[in-house]
Design goal:
Rossmann fold; 265 residues; alpha/beta
């Protein structure tokens, strides 16, 4: 009996320790930025401009603006949770090669961007870049594109504005939904600061919505993206199921390219 009590105490202690560690280190688990020196010079195969936007609280956010001679429109792109613009700029070239201009930002603490992260500033910073984009394009020319972590940001932004369309690659129902699938026995709903409830934001999105998700996604479960799609109230929506696709390799599947050509003709 005493042995069972000791085992129970150890298990309880481990449970509490795991919960505390997840609470205090949640930002380090969600955000995986890499830093760039301020004098770093981007080098890409296609024409681009680097620019900075300053926030009301003094943060400086770094961005890239890729331009075509005769663009079909512009894509405001919100990237995933790892890396910086030196990597994501290369990924965005795929969209530039489809004759779309692309504006892409680095979140606070990523690349050359400064400032402190919080749930609120993710959205206000995104709006700042949306406003920048509207200085150069008409709103009906702006497509919002979110990937992974960026899908929650792009969806919230679409709910507050009227872009041409919203494109989501490997999205989640909510970040809380993903966290609960990763840590099913921990009370993550009680302490997760970055819940990013895309299913709530998407209720207020009035533009067409397209979702791309792989059935073998090992980071954001396919079921989470499908559940988000089913939560969209408007019939003007499309779901592109990439059979066998994982989180980072959808671009290697013909079905992905076919879908992109449909939503970005």
């Amino acid at each position: 009996m005493r042995r069972l009590k000791n085992i129970a105490k150890i298990l309880l202690g481990l449970y509490i320790l795991s919960t505390l560690m997840l609470y205090f280190f949640q930002e380090k688990l969600i955000f995986l930025p890499s830093k760039l020196p301020q004098d770093y010079s981007y080098s890409f195969a296609l024409p681009h401009e680097e620019f900075n936007l300053e926030t009301s609280d003094g943060a400086v956010l770094n961005g890239l603006h890729f331009k075509n001679e005769v663009p079909k429109g512009v894509i405001l792109y919100f990237h995933g949770n790892a890396g910086d613009l030196s990597r994501w700029g290369e990924i965005a070239l795929y969209l530039v090669q489809n004759q779309y201009d692309v504006v892409i930002m680095d979140y606070r603490t990523y690349g050359k961007s400064t400032g402190k992260l919080s749930p609120d500033v993710l959205f206000s910073d995104a709006q700042l870049f949306y406003n920048y984009t509207l200085e150069h394009y008409k709103e009906n020319e702006v497509s919002l594109y979110g990937r992974s972590l960026g899908t929650g940001i792009a969806t919230q932004l679409a709910s507050k504005n009227t872009p041409k369309q919203l494109i989501l690659e490997t999205p989640f129902y909510s970040l809380l939904d993903v966290a609960q699938s990763m840590f099913p026995i921990l009370p993550v709903s009680l302490f997760l600061k970055y819940k990013l409830p895309s299913f709530e934001f998407i209720q207020q999105v009035s533009c067409p919505i397209s979702i791309f998700h792989g059935t073998s996604d090992s980071v954001v479960p396919y079921e989470s993206g499908k559940k988000l799609y089913e939560a969209i109230p408007d019939a003007n929506k499309s779901f592109f199921k990439i059979e066998g696709g994982d989180h980072n390799n959808l671009v290697s599947f013909p079905e992905f390219h076919e879908g992109i050509k449909k939503v970005l003709p």
